[in-house]
Amino acid sequence: MAGFFIMSEIKLIIGLGNPGREYEATRHNAGFWWVDQLAGQQRLDFRSEQKFHGLAARGQAHGHEVFLLKPQTFMNVSGRAVGALAQFYKIEPQQMLVVHDELDLPPGSVKLKLGGGHGGHNGLKDIIAHLGSRDFWRLRIGIGHPGERSEVSSYVLNTPRKEEQPLIEEAMQRALDVSHLVIEGKLEAAMLKLHSS
What are phi and psi of 4, to 5 degrees? Predict the structure, then answer.
């Protein structure tokens, strides 16, 4: 299994979030934040792409051709945007990285993984449904859990607490530091570095 996916370069990086100014600073938009930082670092510009239901950027990142996508459909229908771009450019699930907020990890934690379920994350749920596959990479940015299931939706749609924000930013920076390995397809090396830091 390890040998099978190790050489697959990442061609599409999707940041998950909700469009609109009122959601910009909310925990659920952690995927947008990270992809924006990557775009800034690699000097890539987002443009509105109707046919992909989102903001897309295309260009060289760490010397490789890559697409960045921020679906503008709202979180629970993110798969429409991902499916449209992936189909158009014939990008396979294992060549995709979905960057999202993760309730099961504390602020300050960030993890890479391939495949798995959606863990109740509506964005992931919709992407799995549209691709008909779970075999895409995920960059999980820890936001912590409110403790009560009933409080999750208001929790993710609120801004991180003052003490959490720097922890989340630091974790996102650690993930940016291995983004060259991710894009080159050296995901095991990226995981090793990220998970041991």
Answer: -65, -45
Asked whether residue 11 carries a pLDDT value surpassing 60, the answer given is yes
- Pure H helices in 42-163: 78-88, 122-131, 152-156
For the chain, which domains are there? 11-180 (3.40.50.1470)
Q: Stretch 154-179: mean pLDDT, rounded? A: 96
- Helix ranges restricted to H, 42-186: 78-88, 122-131, 152-156, 164-177, 179-184
Residues in the chain: 197
Report the largest interatomic distance among the alpha carbons of the chain, rounded to a whole angstrom: 45
d(C-alpha 175, C-alpha 38), whole Å:
10
Rounded to an integer, what distance in angstroms lies between the CA atom of residue 182 and that of residue 190? 6
C-alpha distances in Å from residue 139, one per residue of 20, 21, 97, 163, 172: 23, 24, 7, 22, 10
Name the β-bridge partners of 111.
Answer: 140
- How are beta strands 96-102 and 12-15 bridged, if at all? parallel
Q: How far apart are CA 65 and CA 59, in angstroms?
A: 5
Give catalytic residues, as residue numbers.
28
Strand partners, 99: 15, 139
pLDDT (average), residues 129-150: 95
